[in-house]
Each structure stands twice: as C-alpha cells, then as structure tokens.
Design goal:
single chain; 327 residues; alpha/beta; 2 domains; 5-stranded mixed beta sheet; two-stranded parallel ribbon; 39% helix
C-alpha cells in the first residue's frame, strides 16, 4: 500500500492528496497543455502536502484528510488519466509533495517516469488498490473472437472505484497510509474514514436493493469501465472499446448490435463527454437511446472539491442504468 521513501513521519502530516494552494504551481485545464496543479483545485487547510492523481482519488482522500492536510489534484478534474500529459510543472508539484495517492493497477501509466523525474526521495506513495480483489481485463479468447485490442490497461481492469465495496477498501488504504505518515492526526483520519466508508456501505445496500430485480440482465457501455460494478450487482457488462479514446471497428459494432437485440436493451451507456459518432449512430440504427453512466474519471472543478460527488454520481448512474435495461 505504501511506498516508504520517507525516513521519518512528520507530526501533523495529513492528507493523501496534495493541494494546489501549497504548491505554487499552476495546473492547466486544457488537454493540449498537459496538467499543472492549480490553486483552485486544492482542498483542506493542513500543512501536510498530499497529491492525488484523478477524481476518485481526490474525492476519497479529501474525505479522509479533513483539515489535517492540503490535498491537490495532480490531474485537472476535467481531464482523465488517459488524456493527461505531464509537464515540468507537474514534476515540480511532485517534488514538493509529501504524499502521493494513486489508484494503481496501471490506471496512471504516466506516474513511474513522472515520480522519477521529480527526484523526491521523501515522497510516500499510497496505492489504494493494495489488497483489493481484482478482475482480469478480458478473457484470452475475447480478442480472438471479436478483434478487440485488449490489455491497454494491463491484464487487470483498474476501475475498482465503481464498486462501492471496493471503494471502501480504497478509503481504508488511504486512511492507513495517512496514519502511518502522520500519526499526530490519526484520530481525524480514523474518524473520517469510518464515516465515509459507512456511507459507501450504505450506498452499496441501496444500489443492491434497486438492482436486485434486474439480476442477470445485460447492459452495454462505450468503454470497458463497468466489470466491477456489474459483478457486485449480478449484472452482465459488455462494451465496444477498451479505452474511451479508441474508435470501434465494424466487428465491434456488429457484436454490440447483436447483444442489444438479444437482450432487448432500451439504451446504451455513454460517458458525460461527447459521445463517439459511431456509438451514437449505432444507437440510432438500433432504435435505442443513449443514457449517461459517469465512470467518474473526470468532473467539474466544483464537483472535485466535494467528497459527496461520488454518491450523487453513483445514484444517478443507477437510475440511468435501470432505464437502459428496461426498468
């Protein structure tokens, strides 16, 4: 869980997300200009400098850290890990940080080189996926049958945060990491993590109750973000492409068209960003709608500052999913 590059814990270290305000680095909000931490994306007032990678890590860390740490998102909230382009400024942010919180599972492929270039021997990395049960990205024969280009994320699917139960495990990893680095604020971390984890467990119970009537049903998303969610609630998830920036092949579209007709789906699930033209055209050809399922890889600046964003988005996702499968 923790990468101990740090010789001794500092009293009153606090969050696992570094705040922009403590870094004096500017985070660019444009996809083309890469990412540079900005003061507006910072949260918390503590003197422990914590950097997080992307939106769920920021939300979870902010919730646990409370006022004990300054939490900064390394990636602008309107950019996902797949769109991130590191700049010298982001390396500078890491060079000044004390804690880095990551999802792991190859979600943040850019991190290894970036951390190395930051030359921060005291940086502690909290891998929130440590000990979390994972799922393979795809079955070996999936590529052979359907022509997919798999394993772009690696052999393990990284989207563990979309299962509230696994998300609670991530929160616990953040808690344990912050307590180890900053034992002076341990009581705050323990209390905040307990409260947030309980909310995640309550959310899981609510979703399970809502989706129980649809057990065994199938749904189709544009990219491969839903296997953990589907497994948790006994659903079947299909997708067109591995990553959101990929273009589907004719074979991909034909396969999904067959799936939609067989399962009598009422809608396809798309991310909040502008949909893929082929995906939208497929929905039109099949006479089904496009509804939104937000995988929480990106968000607005305002939403990134509110740990309750996770619960709001997930509840909305469930409502839209029920519509997609004909509820």
């Amino acid at each position: 869980m923790i990468n101990p590059h740090r010789s001794s814990p500092r009293n009153c270290l606090t969050s696992s997300i570094v705040k922009l305000s403590c870094l004096t680095v500017v985070l660019s909000l444009g996809a083309c200009s890469g990412s540079v931490p900005s003061e507006t994306s910072a949260s918390g007032r503590g003197d422990l400098k914590v950097v997080t990678t992307f939106l769920p890590m920021t939300l979870f860390t902010t919730a646990v850290a409370g006022d004990c740490a300054t939490v900064t998102a390394l990636i602008p909230p309107n950019l996902g890990p797949h769109d991130f382009q590191a700049t010298p400024a982001t390396a500078s942010a890491l060079s000044q940080a004390e804690v880095l919180v990551e999802n792991g599972l190859d979600m943040e492929e850019f991190l290894e080189k970036l951390v190395s270039s930051a030359e921060n021997e005291n940086l502690v990395t909290i891998n929130t996926s440590s000990g979390v049960k994972t799922l393979e990205s795809s079955e070996p024969d999936h590529h052979d049958r359907y022509g997919h280009h798999h394993h772009d994320h690696g052999e393990v699917n990284p989207h563990i945060w979309l299962d509230p139960v696994r998300a609670a495990e991530q929160v616990e990893n953040i808690r344990d990491g912050l307590v180890e680095v900053d034992p002076g604020c341990a009581s705050t971390y323990l209390k905040n993590a307990e409260l947030y984890s309980q909310k995640l467990k309550d959310l899981n119970n609510d979703i399970a109750s809502q989706l129980q009537p649809y057990s065994g049903k199938s749904f189709v998303a544009f990219h491969d973000f839903a296997p953990y969610f589907a497994e948790r609630y006994q659903l079947k998830a299909d997708y067109i492409v591995d990553l959101p920036d990929m273009n589907p092949s004719p074979a991909d579209l034909q396969r999904v068209a067959t799936q939609v007709r067989q399962s009598q789906l009422k809608a396809l699930l798309s991310e909040p960003q502008e949909g893929n033209r082929s995906f939208n055209a497929l929905a039109n050809d099949l006479g089904v709608k496009i509804v939104e399922f937000d995988p929480l890889e990106t968000g607005s600046l305002e939403s990134s500052l509110d740990p309750n964003t996770y619960f709001k988005v997930m509840r909305s996702n469930v409502t839209n999913l029920i519509e997609a499968i004909g509820g």
